[in-house]
Amino acid sequence: MDWKNWNLMRILRLVFAIYTIHYVVESKEWGWLLFAALLLWQVITNASCGCQGGSCSMPPDKKKDNNHKVDTHELD
Predict the structure, then answer these.
(1) C-beta separation of 55 from 64 below 8 A
(2) Which domain of life is it from (predicted)?
């Protein structure tokens, strides 16, 4: 694990994952364990839920032809 890439959001995810795991053990609400595992996976892999790194951007439309000529002559 690379300890140089730790930012505030990664630390907050770790704290929230530990808190959620503690809640699951204390209350025996085992359904929350999946959520805690997701948070822990995000901490370990440094992944996020959103568009971090520009992964949500759409590629340019290659089919669109912008090089067409317009005839400006008047029709008779």
Answers:
(1) no
(2) Bacteria
**Distance between CA atoms of 54 and 25, rounded to whole angstroms?**
37
Measured CA angle at 17 (ends 12, 20), to 5 deg: 125
Closest CA relative to residue 55, chosen from 63, 47, 44 = 47
Query: How much is the pTM?
Result: 0.55
pLDDT tens figures, 55-75: 566 666 666 555 666 666 766
| Helix H or strand E encompassing 12 | helix 8-27
Please give the structure tokens belonging to residue 38. 């997701």
CA nearest 6: which of 42, 37, 31? Answer: 42
Average per-residue pLDDT in the chain?
Answer: 76
- For 41, the token pair is 């996976």
Per this entry, what is the length of the chain?
A: 76
